Amino acid sequence: MNATMRRFVMGAAAVSMTLSVSACGNAGGDDSGSASTGSSSGGNSVGLLLPDSVTARYDKFDRPYFEAKVESLCPDCTVEYANAAGDPAKQAQQISSMVTKGVKVLVVDPQDSAAIKSSVQSAVDKGIKVIAYDRLAQGPVSAYVSFDTVKVGELQGQALLTALGSEATTKSKVVMINGDDADPNAAKFKDGAHNALDGKVDIAYEQSGLWKDTVAAQKMSAAITRLGAKNIAGVYAANDGMAGGIANTLKGAGVSGIPLTGQDAELAAIQRLLTGTQSATIYKAFKPEAEAAAQLAVNLLQGEDISALATRTETSGSGDKVPSRLLTPVSVTVDNIDDTVVKDGLYTVADICTADYVAACKKAGLE
After folding, report:
1. Which run of H or E residues covers position 203?
2. What pTM, to 2 d.p., does this model score?
3. What angle do CA 133, 134, 138 make, to 5 degrees?
4. Which is nearest to 115 in space by CA: 180, 192, 202, 47?
5. Pairing relation of β-strands 281-283 and 330-332?
6. Under 8 Å between Cβ of 95 and 40
């Protein structure tokens, strides 16, 4: 059933009963990328807008965790969902559509934190509360939920140094492939990584990978051409998607055994940790982040105080001081897979140890 038909069925069913819909479906089948879950009461409507469908976490984890928590806190609430598919203009249209629908709170992970400023302002002018999720949007947002992004970069940089071991010297040439410059988090990841790496290794090549595996692969290829494959000691990749593209490029160039970082604890990255083609990733537990956003959204919807939830203040690119809740990231290597992503239920051993990885799992004690 496509998203348009699903909304039709939900509207009809709401006449006689409150409809609760599973969060696991993909609502990206229509032009808007929107769907709704929960009841049809416009007075209790929360909008969730996520930035892209390329990053595996959003539809697989963030959305269902958020929707489930909202339902548990506010059974009569509706969650309107939309995914921007990497298009800032589309996200602006989705915000406008949700404002028209009468949502009372918007939770937005901005595809472009600066470009979204006017949309945030328009929503606030209509009396809507806006929560920035994972990335700090510009404009008058009421709250921000994310992880300590500078700390993420520091953990990435330190993981690279640890993996380099005795080769972590000022003569060792390191490649840095950073995230999208339009993403304020990317700048903080980069700052944190530089905090850890500067003065300890030679950052010989640094470019943006735009959060795309294909772009990161191209940048890695250019780095190999410039520096020479044998002269690269390690690679900082800002997230796991890009690390996957980089790993393929390194393999194609006959480069193996050099450290490579990542972020997001994607399943493919966990499997690369087992085979040694990636050294570390950063685990930012999706469930507590999504649930914190849901709790803030319900509190704002019901006019309750959020000071006990948002205990820090962050300054956005537009200079706004935003009450914030920042969670703690964790570095994951082959040695602590079981104690992190498996323990938290993000993945099961069966998810990770598929046929191609059985031997590597056994070697790592992951059985």
Report:
1. strand 202-208
2. 0.76
3. 65
4. 180
5. antiparallel
6. no
CA distance linking residue 209 with residue 18, whole number of Å: 45
β-pairing, 321-327 with 312-315?
antiparallel
> What's residue 367's pLDDT?
81
107 — phi, psi (to 5°)?
-110, 115
CA pair distance 234, 160, nearest whole angstrom: 7
Q: Torsion-angle region of residue 212: left (phi > 0), alpha (psi -120 to 50) or beta?
A: beta
Chain centroid offset of residue 320 CA: 22
Q: What percent of the chain has pLDDT over 70?
A: 89
List the structure tokens of 126. Answer: 């209509």
CA atoms within 13 A on the CB side of 95: 32
| Three-state DSSP state, 192 | helix
Q: How far, in Å, CA of 333 to CA of 163, rounded? A: 10
Q: Is 256 exposed, middle or buried (0-12, 13-18, 19+ CB in 10 A)?
A: exposed
Express each pLDDT in 127-146 by its tens digit.
999 999 999 999 999 999 99
Euclidean distance between CA atoms 317 and 184, whole angstroms: 8
Distance CA(64)–CA(305), nearest Å, equals 25
Round to whole Å and give the CA distance between 43 and 46. 9
Indicate the SS3 state at residue 62. Answer: helix
